[in-house]
Amino acid sequence: MQENYHPIGIFDSGYGGLTILKSITEKLPQYDYIYLGDNARTPYGSRSFDVVYEYTRQAVMKLFSIGCQLVILACNTASAKALRTIQQNDLPLFDPTRRVLGVIRPSVEKVPSYTKTGHVGVLGTNGTVLSNSYPLEIAKISGDRIFVTQEACPMWVPLVENDETCNPAADYFVRQNIVNLFSHDPEIDTLILGCTHYPLLLSSILKFLPDDVKLIEQGPIVAESLAEYLARHPEMNENCSKKGTRRFLTTESVQNFEPRASMFLGRPLTAEKIQL
Ligand code: DGL
Question: Domains of the chain by range and CATH?
């Protein structure tokens, strides 16, 4: 482990977490960041609880071994299926001073100030939808005042991972899921993009979204919530190194990862291949 190198770790099953990294680095550029995409094993959305937990635990341990004191699971599926077990079982045994945070809670905290009708839609992977994490978390902060309808979009992550976001097939699947969601609840006025890959399909999503529906996009929300977290936890803030470096790790080939990741981040980057 490099001495005094304590980057903030950002983990996702693939490219989606880059949407979170982009917003976080815009808001908090001074920190060191290390991104890990488990591109070789993506998608996580259709995998069982045990598998998502095990893959996520391996990724978090890898980031800890490199020096991260704080890791953000920039993946809703991992946040839904692995976060709690890692926080409750793994951290106390490994190192109670380290932290792992997810993306669901910060997104849900925005809901009451967005919705006027009290009807909210959630788009996510099969794993996120079946976990019921969004309805449960929303109920914790709003009781039964907010009515949540979920729609699983199993085709969306493969479209992003396979660079097919501009293919007419993307419009076909995006339209199908959005129409389905609103046919179940036409009163929805707030839509949570509950998967970090989905902003990469934004131009298609906006074609089919009713005009008056507000979108909850996670990047800026997670960035704001991280800034608040670091302000509330000076001990963690001091522990995170601040040389403004960025490092990228992928479990896939670097040749596959670099061009696409550069496109999503809007700048060239070099990556390192690792094994989990
Ligand atoms: N980006 C991840 C999420 O936010 C999931 C993608 C996957 O299915 O691997 O849920």
Answer: 8-102+220-273 (3.40.50.1860), 105-218 (3.40.50.1860)
